[in-house]
Design goal:
68 residues; mainly alpha; 56% helix; globular
């Protein structure tokens, strides 16, 4: 079972919201989704704090590569 499934089994994505001000929640969800805290914050700005909306956003977002 991957981290996302372990986390999601305790919550209902339709109703659960991420508290972006709690570092442990940010860390937990970033690890589960394989994203950075900045990517999570962008997702929250775009679609809000509901897990189901964030998951949908992350599945459909373009993949960016940063160039130095």
């Amino acid at each position: 079972m991957n981290n996302k499934n372990k986390i999601s089994q305790n919550f209902t994505p339709e109703t659960y919201r991420i508290d972006i001000d709690k570092n442990y929640e940010v860390s937990k969800w970033c690890e589960a989704w394989g994203i950075s805290p900045l990517e999570l914050k962008i997702a929250v700005i775009e679609v809000g704090t509901k897990i189901s909306k964030i998951e949908r956003f992350l599945k459909t977002r373009p993949q960016f590569q940063f160039v130095n």
